[in-house]
From TrEMBL:
Assigned keywords, A-Z: Membrane, Mitochondrion, Mitochondrion inner membrane, Transmembrane, Transmembrane helix
One BP annotation, GO: cristae formation
Description of how the protein assembles with itself and partners: Component of the mitochondrial contact site and cristae organizing system (MICOS) complex.
Organism from which the protein derives: Didymodactylos carnosus
The protein, known as: MICOS complex subunit MIC13
Length: 103
């Protein structure tokens, strides 16, 4: 059974690795000239779409947003971990007092 799980994991890792290689080699998230050409052709043929394309954030804006979101999550996690002992203690004292008052 253990070997079956290892083989499945190896297969999944190979698929993910291959997909990642294809994405990187084809510059899916980079400055793809073909994508820019298609957008420019669309803007020229449909001028009313220009405003919509102008609202699309740049890759640096998306990157900054992702970094800020990640950092916010990390900050909240460690803040929660730092407060966990006192919050747990206060919660247990409250429960203890309520149970004590019942008897």
């Amino acid at each position: 059974m253990k070997h079956l799980v290892s083989r499945r994991m190896a297969g999944k890792l190979a698929i993910v690795g291959g997909a990642t290689l294809l994405v990187v080699n084809n510059e899916v998230f980079g400055a793809n000239k073909y994508a820019r050409q298609v957008i420019n052709n669309l803007r020229n043929s449909l001028p009313e779409t220009a405003e919509a394309f102008d609202k699309i954030p740049s890759t640096s804006e998306i990157n900054n947003c992702a970094i800020d979101t990640w950092n916010s999550g990390v900050h909240k996690t460690f803040h929660w971990l730092a407060d966990a002992p006192s919050t747990t203690k206060n919660g247990l004292i409250t429960v203890y007092n309520k149970v004590k008052d019942l008897f």
